[in-house]
Amino acid sequence: MKIKLMMIGDVVGSAGVEYLSRGGRLRREAAERGADFIIVNGENSAEGNGITPTSARALLDAGADVITGGNHTLRKKNVFSMLEDGDKLIRPANYSSRAPGHGFTTALVKGYRFLIINLAGQVYMDSPSSPFDTLEKILDSEKGGYDAAIVDVHAEATSEKLALARCFDGRITVAAGTHTHVQTADASVLPGGCGYITDLGMCGSHAGILGVKTESILFKFRVGSPVTFEPAEGDVFATGAVFEIEMAGSNAACISAEAIKF
Ligand SMILES: [Fe+2]
Prior knowledge:
Elements: E1 2-8, E2 10-11, H1 13-21, H2 25-32, E3 37-41, H3 53-62, E4 66-68, H4 80-85, E5 104-109, E6 112-120, H5 131-141, E7 148-154, H6 158-168, E8 174-178, E9 188-189, E10 195-197, E11 202-205, H7 214-223, E12 236-248, E13 251-261
Parallel strand pairs: 1-3, 2-11, 3-4, 6-7, 7-8, 8-10
Antiparallel strand pairs: 1-12, 5-6, 9-10, 11-12, 12-13
Helix pairs in contact: 1-3
This protein binds fe (ii) ion.
């Protein structure tokens, strides 16, 4: 049995959300590629970053089966109850146990149990605990309760993402990076059967800087004062990856990884 997983990088603002929703685009693109399950990173889906119940619901309505997060997930407090109650929206697992929400969830895909885990990096980021130790603990505690383990590594440093994937290659099925908003050209399958890409990229306007208006970012860099991030406009498209997974009992292995853009 083969299962295809489609993952989309950080969705930026209403432009990104609407792009996936309009005319059923996300579902259509997934169907064209034969994808059985869709994971979308939604931590920037609200205007000015963060995620709200409205943007999360819009992504689910557009076809996302699970929404992963990152360093901006807890920015808007009105999403806390959704993080607590739901099993389709997760935040980094290596955050404090006092943080609202859950760091992983399990979903049934064609009868197989997919454990979906969200982690945040520590290099150039302020995640409180090690994503490596956290992943180790989750895989141990959930042992026997899943058939494939899919990890969204929300991190700045390319080295940290690849290190985590290589460390757990053979124990996890996919490690896909998010956060930088720039898709990398290294979609591959590691020797132990872990599908990998350093960064999925984003869904949003590519006319500015990482989805934000060029003037906003230039003001921050050149003047040095904090600014409100205004979303860029135009040249909207989505990037991500499709991973094909061979299921053999509870031994899942990725057999192909392909970067996508639509
Ligand atoms: Fe981020």
